[in-house]
Structure formats: structure tokens, C-alpha cells
Amino acid sequence: MAAGPALCADPKRAALPNEFFAMDSAVVRRLGKDIIPESDIDAIARLGYAGLSIGVPDPAAWQRLGDQVLPWLDARKLKLFAIYCVVHLDRDGYTYNTEVKRSLGLLKGRGTVVWLPIVTKAFQPSDQKADPLAVTIVREIADVAAAQAMRVSLYHHAGSLMERVADVLRIAQKAERPNVDVTFNLCHWLKTDPPDSLDQTLRLALPRLSIVTINGADRDAKDWDKLIQPLDSGNFDLTAFLRDLHRLGYKGPIGLQGYEVANHLHIDPRENLSRSMAAWKKLSKAAV
Asked: DSSP 3-state assignment of 248?
């Protein structure tokens, strides 16, 4: 792919069919403080995002999700694309927010995916000695999700157990659950994989690929302030990337990653959301 995003497109030209949503990391200044307020949901609706993804870290957040956030989304005809279920793994076992088991029924029929990253200090990233535990985790959460007719998407994240796309694909295959898919996270792929592996990686992931996340980035960067930028920034060729996804037949949702843009780059989340939506509209047409 050539460097540099191409952002010129004919306004009458067809656009990508993929729904474009905002990850909570692009909406708030810092994750983990509270669940997203109504004013932020109103902002992403006005800007034209199809919905959002969020973390639901504790029982109180699940209560607010059911009582407030879902009605806010419904009132604006927005979709909750994904929720996180973060698993903490050690040598003896694993833990995660078991409220997922009790509350996942709130999301039945909404098309919401359970995002599953696995964090650990006991194993190195991509350590296949942890595969038996990882497979046990995935099967357990996949079975909980299946009871609500929901899907799980394994979330690769630099520094985590499933660090690379190859890791989530391997674990998904070993788990042998029909409702287990994988996510492709652009910034984490850039952090961990060689640039010339992209085409092969996308081809391998495609049969299980359920969500893609993107952001502006510098192609050869390794620091997060260069790996996660607004969608109109950086020299990574997003047009070529999106064109490849389209050519391969990917029709699933695409999410805007914005982790720490406000703090690393001093760009307000609302500005990032506005700039990134304007860039998406141009990229979406240029990529077809």
C-alpha cells in the first residue's frame, strides 16, 4: 500500500456498505471512569455514527446500561455494537466480571457482540502454553453468549495474551464454538506485525472476521501517540486498507479507535469524532 490517506471523493459516488461506529475510547477523555453519558450519545448520533461500543465493568454499570444507556440508544436509533468482557488470567485460573452471566440477556436480539481480550502477567504475549486455559475461557463465555443468541469476538491487543491476529485465530479454531469470531484492530496490528503481512493477515482472518477497528496512524510507528490518531491524520494508507477489505468481501461493522487521543495529542474527543466522521465519509467513497 502506498503511504498517505486519500481523502478526495466524488460526493455522488457509492460508499462502503459497512456500518461505522465509535468505540468508547474515542468518545471519552479517559476510559474506566463511568459509563458514557447521554450527552456523548447524543453527539455521536448528530455526527452520524451508527452506534458505539462500551465497557461495562461492574454491576452498577450493567444497571445503568439497562436503565439508561439502552433507552438512550434506542431513542436515537443507535446500535450497541460490542461490549467488553476482559478476562484476567494467571497460572492457576482466570477471573472476569461474572455479571456478564447474569446480565447478558439485556442485549439479546440487539446484534451486540461480546469483545473478549485476555490480559495476563503470568504468560508472555502469544505464549501457546496458555492455550488450554484460553480455550477454556473462550468456551465458557461463548456458551453464556450462545444462550442469548449472541456472538463472541476475540480481541487481539498488544501486550495481552492474544496479542496478534494469529493468536485470536488460533484460539478461535481450538475453541470449536460456532459463535466465536475475531476482531481486527489496526493499531494493534501495526504495533505487533510486519507491514508486509497485512494482505495475508486479512485473508486468513476473513472467514471469522466480525469487527474491524481503525484510526489514523503512522505506518512504521511503535508509540501510541503515532499509532492512534484522528482518522484524517497519519501516513498509513487507510483508503487502500479499506479498499482491500471491500475487495475481500468484508461487510461487517468498522469502529473508530480513539484511545488516549485527548491526552496524547490534546485533541478533544468531540473534535476527534467530528474530524474522523468527515474523513470516514471521504474514505468510504474513495475505497469503493
From this structure: helix
Note the pLDDT of residue 9: 47
Side-chain half-sphere CA neighbours of 95 within 13 A: 2
pLDDT band (50, 70, 90) for residue 195: confident
pLDDT tens-digit readout, 111-170: 999 999 999 999 999 999 999 999 999 999 999 999 999 999 999 999 999 999 999 999
The torsion angles phi and psi of 136, rounded to 5 degrees, stand at -60, -45
- Percent of the chain whose pLDDT exceeds 70: 95
Q: Whose CA is closest to 277, among 207, 203, 186, 216?
A: 216
What residue type is assigned to position 202 of the chain? L
Query: Exposed, middle or buried: residue 194 (CB in 10 Å: 0-12, 13-18, 19+)?
Result: exposed
**What is the Cα–Cα distance from 281 to 254, expressed in whole angstroms?**
13
Q: Residue 124 carries which side chain, given as an amino acid letter? A: Q
Give the range among 12-16, 76-80, 206-210, 215-219 with minimum mean pLDDT. 12-16
- Domain 20-286 class? alpha beta
Q: What does DSSP assign to residue 48?
A: T
Note the residue count of the chain.
288
The string of DSSP codes covering 74-104 is HHTT-EEEEEE--EEEETTEEE--THHHHHG
CB < 8 Å & 24+ apart, contacts of 188-192: 188/156, 188/157, 188/158, 188/163, 189/156, 189/164, 189/165, 190/217, 190/219, 190/221, 190/227, 190/236, 191/158, 191/222, 191/227, 192/125, 192/156, 192/158, 192/163, 192/164
What is the residue extent of each domain of the chain? 20-286
CB burial readout 160-171, b (16+ within 10 A) else e: bbbbbbbbbbbb
**pTM score:** 0.94
